[in-house]
Amino acid sequence: MTSILVVEDNLDLAANIVDYMETCGHVADSAADGREALRLTGCHHYDVIVLDLALPGVDGLTVCRRLREGGDATPVIMLTARGELDEKLAGIEHGADDYLVKPVALAELEARIRAQVRRARGAFNRTSLRVGDLDLDERTREVFRAGRPVSLARADFLLLRRLMRDAPNVVTREALEEALWGDEPPATDTLRAHVHRLRRVIDHPFDQRLLHTVHGVGYRLVPADEAQA
Whose C-alpha in 6, 10, 192, 201 is 20 to 30 A from the C-alpha of 212? Predict the structure, then answer.
């Protein structure tokens, strides 16, 4: 489970981000100004911080700089309504890890949060993924369920890899479409067909289901006896 601090003085936007992230299976706190953000980061550990640049009082650049000077290496994704290159460079120079210009697409923000958390946890250095009795080797592209080899088409392998990297969290439909087709997903609901085919291969021959639909949001990969947790 990913813990997120959203630092945003636009209360409606902050509430939308928090609600969306919690729907995706994350836990999120919010702060409306830089001083509150620094107080919360001093009391709690967060996996990632979503930080608005233009905050009242202590601005986002100062918050980021103080975190880094204090030895806090939590990934920071900076938000701003200003898209100029100088603002972006200033954020990076003060220790930001990523940068998004408002208005922000929540699905893209969630995908970037996952990427930053994976990097921080060293997930990009791993070659083996495991969920229940399902194993995937990213280097060799071999997949096994209960020790039995599973043959997957390339697109279905990419889909499974994304689900396993984020397990047991929910992966949104938008994030899965991006993993398969980048910025140009097909107009038809091709993702549903891939999920159906993947479920038939990794679940139907076995007693316990791993691939679960979260209606209206996306999918998650988790053993059935843990899915209700």
Answer: 6
Q: What is the CATH number of the domain that holds 209?
A: 1.10.10.10
* Residue 54 identity (one-letter amino acid): A
pLDDT of residue 97: 86
CA 9/CA 37 separation, integer angstroms:
11
Domain extent, residue 93, equals 3-120
Residue with tokens 């289901």: 209
DSSP 104: P
Q: If you average pLDDT over every residue of the chain, what do you get?
A: 87
Task: Tell me the C-alpha distance between 26 and 6, whole Å.
Answer: 12
Q: What is the pLDDT averaged over residues 116-143?
A: 81
pLDDT in tens, 172-202: 998 898 888 877 778 778 899 999 999 999 9
Angstrom distance (rounded) from CA 177 to CA 129? 21
Q: Which helix (H) or strand (E) holds 17?
A: helix 11-23
Q: Residue count of the chain, please give it.
A: 229
* 133: number of Cβ within 10 Å: 14
Q: Both 131 and 183 in a single domain?
A: yes
Round to whole Å and give the CA distance between 229 and 209. Answer: 15
Q: Model's pTM, two decimal places?
A: 0.58
Please, which residues have CB within 8 angstroms of residue 222's CB and are 6 or more apart in sequence? 131, 132, 167, 168, 210, 212
Q: Same structural domain for residues 101 and 141? A: no
